Amino acid sequence: MKKSNLSNIGLALLRIVPSVLLMTHGFGKVQMLFQGGEIQFPNPLGLGTIPSLVLASLAEFIAPIFIILGFKARWACIPVIITMATAFFIVHGNDALQIKELALAYLTVFASIALCGPGKLSIDGR
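The structure corresponding to this sequence follows.
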């Protein structure tokens, strides 16, 4: 197998696996939006509880769908990067690394996708 084929498989894995895992976090936030009742969610940027939850839901559930498909993947990484940077530096800023390391891992992965692109095994690559 050619090196470029292996690189494209690697980029596809880098896109798909973390996106699916991130969606498990986002699904709970989407459910919270539609369940009714009082919403308890952090408001780290002062936008309001509901707008913060909507933005986090978009970044953790909708954007990963675009990233999995590789459709406008670099653009779709931007809300994820912003959300994970907010989680790492603001929401969990004073926490131990063990608590905030998942946000840093997601931040690193999605920043890498934004820099490298989705590869040829994507809608953008076709």
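Residues 3-116 form one domain.
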